[in-house]
Structures are given as C-alpha cells and as structure tokens.
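lol ok so funny story. i was supposed to be doing the assay writeup but got distracted and ended up predicting the structure for this chain instead. priorities right. anyway since i did it might as well share w the group, maybe its usefull for someone
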Amino acid sequence: MNHTSSKKSTRKTTRPFPVLRAILALIVLLFGAGYAAPQELGIPFFSSDSDTRHSDLERITLERVVDGDTVYATLNGVSTKIRLIGINTPESVAADESRNTAEGVIASDYVKGLLSKGDVLYLEYDEEQTDQYGRTLAYLWLSDEVNTSSYQDFCKYNLNAVILQNTWCDTMFYAPNYKYRDWLTKLKRQKES
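and the output, tada:
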C-alpha cells in the first residue's frame, strides 16, 4: 500500500495483531521471555508502620494500570494520570490501533501483573510536575522505606527501574527531568549486555 496516496481505501482489512498477541502471550507463558515474574522480584508493595519512611515521597493509591508506562492513582483525593519519567514502553492502547504492538501488550501485561488496584505506591517528582498533556510526571516507588540516593534501592524499589529491567522498555528523557537519567541509562546498558 502506498502511504503517500491521498485516497482512502474503503476495503476492510483484517489485522493479524490479535493472533500475534495470542502467540506472544503463549510464548511468554511457556518460556517467560527472560523477564522476572513479579513474585520473583521480592518487592514489597506496602511499607510497614515503622518510622523510617522517606519524607520526600508522596503516598498514592493505584487505581489502574493504563499501559507499561502510565497509571491512574489517587493523589491527594483526586484521580490522577501519572506518566513514568525516564522510560518508554511500546504502545498498547493507542486510539490509532496501527500504533499498538505486541511488545507494548507484553509490557502492559507485565505491569498489570506487578500491580493491583489499591496498591500503595510512593510518588517522587523531578523538576517538572506535569507534561503538555496534563499528565503528572513522576518516579514511583514500591516502598517509602528506601534510600533514594542508593542505586541498589533504586534498582529494586523504583517502579520505573523495575519496568525497564524486566520488560519491553527503553529510556526516554526530556529536559529538565534528569534526576535519575544516569541510573536508568546504566540499567539500560546492563540489560542490553
């Protein structure tokens, strides 16, 4: 099909995407696709009631996972769309279905398997708190009992980092939100080696 043509085809085409999605899902189930299952990560979703909580992190409650890099959560009593900073997963729920990919579905399913409605997460802002689409920009932590200056804690408890390490995901940075750029870049290089 010539994409430069101005004529639109009225012929309905069948897309192989649902079949491809089913095949890839079966492969992931059978072989694990090299990703760690959420339970294998040993990640606590709720912090204990101890007094070691990190004061710079804002408590939120997960409403739902949109896709591999976007969630809805209750923030200060308001339903808020949150775009994870520094990572980008392939599309899986775009209105233009031609943009959706099997890899995006796998990434989305991974995050949906990792998180559940009602999970308590902890939000950390970078320089900008919202993007041009009105989404809240944030790093999400799976616990508030972390040292945000520790690379080891970042790798284990930062949701953005966990997603990058364990599913179809790339890094993506927009100025001035560079707080964890070096660590995410390091994780990406380690994943590719």
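The radius of gyration is 18 Å. The first strand starts at residue 58 and ends at 67.
back to the writeup now i swear
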